[in-house]
Amino acid sequence: QRLIVRLLSCPGTVAEDLRRDEQPSGSVETGFEDKIPRKRFSEMQNERREQAQRTVLIHCPEKISENKFLKYLSQHGPINNHFFYESFGLYAVVEFCRKESVGSLQNGTHTPNMAMETAIPFRSRFLSLKLKNQTSEQSCIQSSNQLPPSNRKLFELICYAESIDDQLNTLLKEFQLTEENTKLRYLTCSLIEDIAAAYFPDCVVRPFGSSVNTFGKLGCDLDMFLDLDETRNLSTHKTSGNFLMEFQVKNVPSERIATQKILSVIGECLDHFGPGCVGVQKILNARCPLVRFSHQASGFQCDLTTNNKIALTSSELLYIYGALDSRVRALVFGIRCWARAHSLTSSIPGAWITNFSLTMMVIFFLQRRSPPILPTLDSLKTLADAEDKCIIEGNNCTFVRDLNRIKPSGNTETLELLLKEFFEYFGNFAFNKNSINIRQGREQNKPDSSPLYIQNPFETSLNISKNVSQSQLQKFVDLAQESAWILQQEATHRPSVSSNQPWGLAAILLPSVPNRGSLTKKKRKRSANERVKNLLESLKSNRTANFTETNEK
Ligand code: CTP
Ligand code: MG
Q1: 3-state per-residue secondary structure call for 46-70
Q2: How far is Cα 410 from Cα 415, in angstroms, rounded to an integer?
Q3: I need a labelling partner for 435 at 20 to 30 A (CA). Which of 47, 362, 477, 515 fits?
Q4: Smallest Cα–Cα separation from 323: which of 421, 212, 419?
């Protein structure tokens, strides 16, 4: 009863818990699903960060009673929200209503005594629950899924869809980050922030990239940005009269060296004291120095950078583009899955196209439609007000942040048409002379000889796809032409709904024939035709066996 009273005293709790109870595992409300986020990016980030600060991560025994567990924890204050998930063991994410509850829980927690090893004492919000009596508990936990769907499931879902539009929307629904996965990402950043705070008490660790830009697929990496602005700016608030007080600091010759030094100590700290942080690698000589590690409990591969504010701004820009029209994310997810299925992208860095570049290509393509589906970055800049003005390291990053001030597009093209046209457009794009530029929304002459040139929207002298080799670009072009052709055939030869044949999106996710590069365009078309025919035949007997790996990483 006391628990119920506490839960009721915390707005949203009962409703949230009841809603979860009604839903089967894996189909929890996603936050992005079926509704386009209208919140400002900064508002959303601040809310989620504050939520994460009231949250703890608990490694639980396999057999545990959910009710008793919640009752035990609610001694420290009312719980707003919780969920369980599995990742080499059972974990609980528990969000209290008040931040003080976390302190109270930590005060009642002790550092374990090891028989053979010695524990390095570190008080974090990553805890372990032990049972005094193993046998008395029963497991009745529903755990939330953090993984993308299996190929088999995805294949079945998209083959039974009614249209290509339906297929793309299904793919989006299955792969997008769930509400719970998003919470876990913000919590992981918050846990890392606590560790970095040992050196920089006012630091903020913010997620960026696909974890927050609405284009993240389940299983994608977690990009983190160590923001030291507060630490840097503190002195500006404390001046008076003719006096100006400054901190005594160490100086280094460049911003880059400062970044390397900061990341180096944070890397050491994560390695030595960070609970659950394993495989810490300091990659300090990269163009953008970073610390890479695995956060074992959440299962995320993390990349921590600092002095990288522009990347956070690009994430905000993509968040806005993703929110403007429901077709944008569906098309980007479709293209990302297609690229992954054909090994055009990889989790290993190399000469391949990245997901970030693919997203830019989709945005550019949608700016080129008539009427345009997405506005250019220059027009978003025109809509900006004084509050939106933003200059980072001399780069103008001004654009409108309020989604409600951007007029929706009058374009009504279907996703099916857009998918086909995307392949058609980039299958015939003059990559040899033109660059892609979402700022102006039109092709420009390439400023250098990189095979693929996509202008960085804010650091306009940089090419975000500088790493892409001619052969990888050719592979992309060949596959785009082939997919355009397959979809063209599909328009006239769509199988009946009751047949088990892969069609539409499923057909273009199928593996490719080898040695495609040596084929002429005509032969390629013929070969693709035969390939699809053969695959359809083989899939008829064993529908899913040949389906390619489409999982992200
Ligand atoms: N970024 C950039 N310029 C690049 C590469 C990356 O500005 N050449 C920024 C982008 O804001 C990008 C973020 O860094 O979103 C993270 O990069 P990455 O992890 O490679 O891309 P994601 O968009 O996160 O996609 P993925 O799901 O593949 O991780
Ligand atoms: Mg990423």
Answers
A1: HHHHHHHHCEEEEEECCCCCHHHHH
A2: 15
A3: 515
A4: 212
pTM recorded for the entire structure: 0.87
Residues with CB under 5 Å of ion ligand 2 are: 209-210, 221, 223
Measured between its terminal Cα atoms, the distance across the chain in Å is: 45
Q: Which atom of ligand 1 is nearest to the CA of 211?
A: 24
Closest ligand relative to 467 C-alpha: 1
Q: Say what the pLDDT of residue 37 is.
A: 59
- For residue 38, the CA-to-ligand 2 centroid distance in Å is 23
Question: Residue 487: which residues within 8 A CB-CB, separation 6 or more?
Answer: 164, 416, 419, 420, 423, 504, 507, 508
Q: Kindly report, residue by residue over 385-440, the tens digit of the pLDDT.
A: 999 999 999 999 999 999 999 999 999 999 999 999 999 999 999 999 999 999 99
Ligand 1 binding pocket includes 465 (Cβ within 6 Å): no
Atom of ligand 1 lying closest to residue 355 CA = 28
Q: Provide the pairing of β-strand 395-396 with 391-392.
A: antiparallel
Q: How far is CA 316 from CA 220, 258, 309, 458, in A?
A: 18, 26, 11, 12
What single letter denotes the amino acid at residue 412? T
Is the C-alpha dihedral spanning 174, 175, 176, 179 positive or negative?
Answer: positive
Pocket flag, ligand 1, residue 311 (CB < 6 Å): yes
Q: Does 223 sit in the ligand 1 pocket, CB within 6 Å?
A: yes
317 lines ligand 1 (CB under 6 A): no
Best of 206, 223, 283, 455 for a ligand 1 pocket test (most atoms within 8 Å of beta carbon):
223
Tokens at 538, concatenated: 């083989």
What pLDDT shows up at residue 511?
74
